[in-house]
Design brief:
Length: 434
């Protein structure tokens, strides 16, 4: 038998590449390690979970409206495929870099595992401010990017979906480009499509609805109710606006919401349906009548029952954790809090529902969309929402039980549940070639 020649310390250490040093990724690695420790995971398994399997960098030349060509950077990271095809969104944002995409892809692996889905983890993105592009430029960018990553995606390989800065229209262009190049319609190559072309009912609001399902469950566990509870929502994109709407519909008092331009506050609660209408016409929440202007930062420090950070990563860290007054934090965004901040706040008695559970509703309904596409048999919205509730509440309960059993916070517990499932599958599949 061949002897293993490698020096252990060498194989366990991360190489110095910049994309493996991004704070979001380092934070995910720390969480994976902590999760592994809780279940006494095999160090060889943990070492494998700490590296992305494949990172793809593409150049995306785009004909702009002024006829000049601009070349954008695009990425797709295929982090892990033990449990099934790679799965995760595509982000369009000016701060996108390979390191961020690696971190987000690692979170998708954890999330898909903890949600019990038959998926590995992946993520993609383009470094671009989509608000600065015309519709034609956005379409050209999306189609060329899809073509560049085309050989690596597919309904059985890697299935993108919307994320920050992308939407159902983006997915429609991706599906069409991929299908044109294959020569026939392949609806299941992406999820989050419009319903007219193989999307699922309920997908658009699914992440926000999932946030609210787990919030309700947490209130129930703490012997409280969502009705009358005060809620602040940071971010009013797809996730934040739906989380605010469904909270409001359940009788919660949504006292503050915000977007990139700033926030609005009303101590008696904001009429969220009207705020959504206002945003349709004004493109921002700022200036909404019956409200006071507040900053994004002030919103985070409000004294509320539930704080939902639904924008971008890294908004709560060790530097500002002590300013948080909320009694519960539900992470609608990916990576809005660091592990250190989680620990500080957990110690203070704040109940935290981590991203990999809280915002899992999106990918759960993506899974339903993929299943419906493969059967060409579509469900009604009630069925979608009912199944979503049962899956996400089950994931929450698993995390909650683990947290109680091991006396850890919900992030550590979710990591432990996730690593446990991944480990079982990896050990069964073995290491190729051996
Ligand atoms: N971008 C979403 C997330 O971060 C959805 C991913 C998906 O549906 O594949 O979970």
């Amino acid at each position: 038998m061949e002897k293993q020649q490698t020096d252990k310390s060498e194989t366990q250490e991360l190489p110095p590449e910049e994309h493996l040093r991004h704070p979001l990724f380092l934070n995910a690695l720390q969480a994976i390690e902590e999760g592994g420790k809780i279940i006494n995971a095999d160090p060889n398994i943990v070492a494998r979970l700490k590296r992305p399997k494949r990172c793809l960098i593409v150049s995306v030349p785009v004909r702009m409206d002024d006829y000049n060509v601009k070349v954008f950077n695009g990425y797709r990271v295929q982090y892990n495929s033990t449990l099934g095809p790679y799965k995760g969104g595509i982000r369009y944002h000016q701060d996108v870099c390979l390191g961020e995409v690696v971190g987000l892809a690692a979170l998708m692996m954890i999330k898909n595992s903890v949600m019990g889905l038959p998926y590995g983890g992946g993520k993609g993105g383009i470094t671009v401010d989509p608000t600065k592009l015309s519709r034609t430029e956005k379409q050209n960018l999306t189609r060329r990017f899809t073509s560049e990553i085309g050989p690596f995606i597919g309904p059985n390989k890697d299935i993108p979906a919307p994320d920050v800065g992308t939407d159902p229209q983006t997915m429609a262009w991706m599906m069409d480009t991929y299908s044109q190049e294959q020569g026939y319609t392949q609806a299941g190559v992406v999820t989050g499509k419009p319903v007219e072309i193989g999307g699922s009912l309920g997908r658009n609001g699914a992440t926000g609805l999932g946030v609210v399902y787990v919030t309700e469950r947490a209130f129930e566990k703490l012997g409280k109710s969502m009705k009358g509870a005060t809620v602040a929502v940071q971010g009013f994109g797809n996730v934040g606006s739906h989380a605010a709407l469904y909270s409001w519909e359940r009788g919660a008092k949504v006292v503050a919401v915000s977007d990139v331009n700033g926030g609005i506050f009303n101590g008696d609660g904001l009429p969220i349906k009207d705020v959504i209408e206002y945003v349709k016409n004004n493109k921002t929440v700022v200036g909404f009548p019956q409200s006071q202007k507040i900053s994004n930062e002030e919103l985070l420090y409000l004294d509320v029952d539930a704080l939902m950070p639904c924008a971008l990563e890294g908004v709560i860290g060790a530097h500002n954790a002590d300013k948080i007054k909320a009694r519960m934090i539900i992470e609608g965004a990916n990576g809005p809090m660091t592990n250190d901040a989680t620990k500080i706040l957990h110690k203070k008695g704040v109940f935290i529902i981590p991203d990999v559970i809280a915002n899992g509703g999106g990918v759960v309904v993506s899974y339903f969309e993929w299943v419906q596409d493969s059967m060409s048999f579509f469900w009604d919205e009630e069925e979608v929402n009912g199944r979503l509730k049962s899956i996400i509440v089950k994931a929450f309960d698993k995390g909650y039980t683990m947290a109680k059993e091991k006396n850890v916070d919900m992030r550590q517990a979710a990591m432990a549940v996730s690593v446990d499932r991944l480990q079982k599958a990896m050990l069964l599949r073995g290491l190729y070639p051996r």
